[in-house]
């Protein structure tokens, strides 16, 4: 029986897949989101490599941005490798890679070593997204596709919440094990170990479905991409630093580097992914996702510092309030996915929801910016606005993912989702660095918040011009054969096997 089959007791097998992928998202997101609270603690306590910087927020933002430079470089290769070696294969490798690299982040000493291992972590984690989205799109009945994507990506919210809320506790624990200025190491060690545990669980689950996954060959192929990516990112960092460029300009050069490298790969593979590159509607969604991922990692990276500055609250309390931003995804992701499927079945379509939810989030973000600009803000007003804006923001993402799946050719799901996150990661690379530079330049966070809101407004306009895909139109017309949605897709050996 295929992955879409029904297990004993009426529990669909694809829902078990959702659970394991949700766990993967949780630990992966916690690993990447942890850097923000940790560097905020370093700045507040004037420890480690941030103690010597005269622009600590810009440097901390650059560290976060360089992680996403690595993450960005493997978006498209990760999807391509998933189409070739199987999406399950790449998901397991990504999780093992992330767990080991996150633990190493807690062991290294010195700024350069820390940056290099965070870039390396990003290179491994960058392959998860395109393969997770592809596997859900392939194995979930079409009329439940958006719900599945929403439920699974709830792990992103859970992971960011865990990293934000428990970073102070893990650092306190580290203070009992390490020297006071080394307490931050415990956060990376603990979450890295958790990631490895989830990776082992996923590997065991996938082995029951499809024994003999080609981990060795796929890992070697991934390492080849990662070695080139790590060398390129660190070379740009060293050259920019030696030339006296600001942290912001180094981040901009990293984006340019990533785009050049990816374009060179695409130039050799246009025959395989030409439809992905030529689709007007996929391009519009992908460009809009620059703003989406800018917003995601602006607040995920800097929300603790924003709350602490605006409300003059402690590190621990600020982390709890900032968690309202991440925690909103626990509600927003699955509800957005469910509403999307309902809207399609009732002839409304996904696009009106994407546009409406993104516009509402923009308005709420502007309101949050005015609260921050006013100074001495109420932490509960900030919490309410963070939660409200983030709920709509998180709700629109699985809807947009389902729109992308409706538009893209199923044979190239990995490439399509990889390209989506590749373009979107431009925002993730620049957001921490640009926002940190604005904080150093203005002494506050309001300018960075208003910039974020402006980018979201641009995304609203771009979504307005997207045309929904054929799958959505068929579902809306009522002609979709629901019996076929329960059929298991063929699993073949070799290229394209999943």
**Radius of gyration over all CA atoms, rounded:** 21 Å
CATH superfamily label: MFS general substrate transporter like domains
Structural class: mainly alpha
Average per-residue pLDDT, rounded, comes to 83
The CATH class designation is Mainly Alpha
Q: Give the termini separation.
A: 15 Å
| Count of separate structural domains | 1
Our estimate of the beta-strand percent is: under 5%
The DSSP helix count reads 20
Biggest sheet descriptor:
none
- CATH architecture group name: Up-down Bundle
What percent of residues adopt helix (DSSP H or I)?
over 70%
Q: Given the C-alpha coordinates, what overall shape results?
A: globular
The number of distinct β-strands equals: 0
Element-by-element helix/strand order? HHHHHHHHHHHHHHHHHHHH
Reported by name, the CATH topology is Growth Hormone, Chain: A
Regions with little confidence, pLDDT below 50 for 5+ residues: 474-498
Describe the structure in your own words.
This protein is an all-alpha fold and 498 residues long. It has one domain: MFS general substrate transporter like domains (Growth Hormone, Chain: A). The chain is built from 20 helices and no strands. The C terminus is likely disordered.
């Amino acid at each position: 029986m295929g992955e879409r089959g029904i297990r004993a007791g009426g529990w669909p097998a694809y829902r078990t897949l959702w659970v394991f992928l949700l766990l993967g998202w949780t630990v992966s997101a916690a690993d990447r989101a942890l850097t923000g609270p940790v560097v905020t603690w370093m700045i507040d306590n004037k420890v480690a490599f941030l103690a010597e910087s005269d622009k600590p927020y810009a440097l901390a933002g650059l560290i976060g941005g360089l992680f996403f430079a690595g993450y960005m470089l493997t978006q498209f290769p990760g999807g391509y490798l998933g189409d070739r070696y199987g999406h399950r294969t790449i998901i397991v490798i990504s999780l093992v890679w992330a767990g080991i690299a996150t633990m190493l982040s807690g062991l290294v000493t010195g700024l350069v070593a820390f940056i290099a291992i965070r870039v390396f972590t990003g290179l491994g984690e960058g392959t998860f997204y395109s393969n997770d989205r592809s596997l859900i799109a392939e194995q979930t009945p079409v009329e439940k596709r958006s719900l599945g994507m929403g439920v699974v990506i709830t792990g992103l919210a859970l992971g960011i919440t865990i990293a934000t809320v428990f970073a102070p506790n893990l650092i306190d624990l580290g203070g009992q094990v390490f020297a006071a200025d080394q307490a931050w190491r415990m956060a990376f060690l603990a979450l890295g170990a958790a990631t490895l545990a989830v990776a082992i669980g996923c590997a065991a689950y996938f082995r029951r479905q499809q024994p003999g996954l080609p981990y060795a060959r796929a890992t070697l192929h991934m390492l080849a991409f990662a070695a080139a990516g790590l060398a390129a990112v660190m070379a740009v960092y060293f050259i920019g630093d030696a030339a006296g460029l600001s942290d912001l300009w180094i981040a901009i050069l990293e984006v340019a580097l990533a785009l050049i490298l990816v374009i060179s790969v695409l130039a050799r593979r246009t025959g395989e992914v030409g439809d992905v590159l030529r689709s007007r509607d996929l391009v519009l969604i992908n460009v809009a996702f620059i703003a989406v991922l800018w917003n995601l990692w602006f607040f995920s990276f800097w929300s603790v510092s924003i709350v602490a500055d605006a409300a003059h609250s402690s590190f621990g309390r600020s982390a709890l309030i900032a968690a309202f931003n991440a925690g909103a995804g626990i509600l927003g992701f699955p509800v957005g996915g469910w509403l999307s499927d309902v809207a399609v079945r009732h002839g409304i379509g996904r696009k009106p929801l994407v546009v409406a939810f993104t516009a509402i989030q923009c308005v709420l973000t502007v309101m949050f910016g005015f609260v921050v600009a006013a100074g001495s803000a109420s932490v509960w007003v900030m919490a309410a606005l963070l939660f409200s804006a983030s709920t709509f923001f998180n709700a629109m993402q699985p809807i947009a993912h389902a729109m992308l799946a409706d538009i893209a050719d199923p044979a190239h799901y990995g490439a399509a989702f990889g390209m989506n996150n590749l373009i979107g990661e431009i925002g993730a690379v620049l957001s921490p660095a640009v926002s940190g530079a604005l904080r150093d330049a203005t002494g506050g966070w309001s300018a960075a918040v208003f910039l974020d809101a402006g980018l979201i407004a641009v995304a609203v306009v771009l979504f307005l011009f997207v045309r929904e895909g054929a799958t959505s139109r068929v579902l809306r017309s009522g002609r979709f054969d629901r019996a076929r949605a329960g059929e298991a897709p063929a699993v073949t050996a070799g290229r394209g096997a999943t």
